[in-house]
Amino acid sequence: MSDSDYTVLSGGGANGFFSFAMNIDLKRANDGTYTAVNKSGGAVIMPKIISLKHPTATVFLFDNVFDPISEVVNGSPSFNSVNPANRQNSFASRHSKGGVINFFDGHVAYFKTAHVQNNPFTKGEKEPLVQDIIWDVPYRQ
Fold this sequence. Notes:
Layout: E1 20-23, E2 59-63, E3 85-86, E4 98-103, E5 108-112, H1 113-117, H2 137-140
Parallel strand pairs: 1-3
Antiparallel strand pairs: 1-2, 2-4, 4-5
C-alpha cells in the first residue's frame, strides 16, 4: 500500500492493525447478551475451557481481514484490522482466499473464507452452521 492508501483506513491507520483477532462472541452470555461482567464491573467474564462442549470446534483466535482494498468481505472494509475482536464476517481472505483459525483445544487449521462465511442463519450473529467451526457458543450449545 502507498501512503495515500492509508487515508481510507478508519483513523488513517492510527488505531493499530490486528491481523489476528479474538472471537468476539466469546463474550456472549447464555441469553445472547454481552452483559456477563465480573462482580467488580470490570472485564467481561470469558468461558472456561471445561464449559465448552466442543473445544475442538470453538474459535478462539482467527486470521482477521486486514487490507480494506483487497479484502472486502464485509460491509465495513474501512474498519478492517482496527478491532482486536471480531466474528466470522471479518475472516481473512488474503491467503489464497482463506485464513487460519486457532481453536480452544490448541490446534490450528486453514479454512477457505467461503467455508467460514457460508450458510448464514438468522439467530445469534448470523453464524454459519458448519459442524467444524463454532463462533457463538451460547447459541450453538
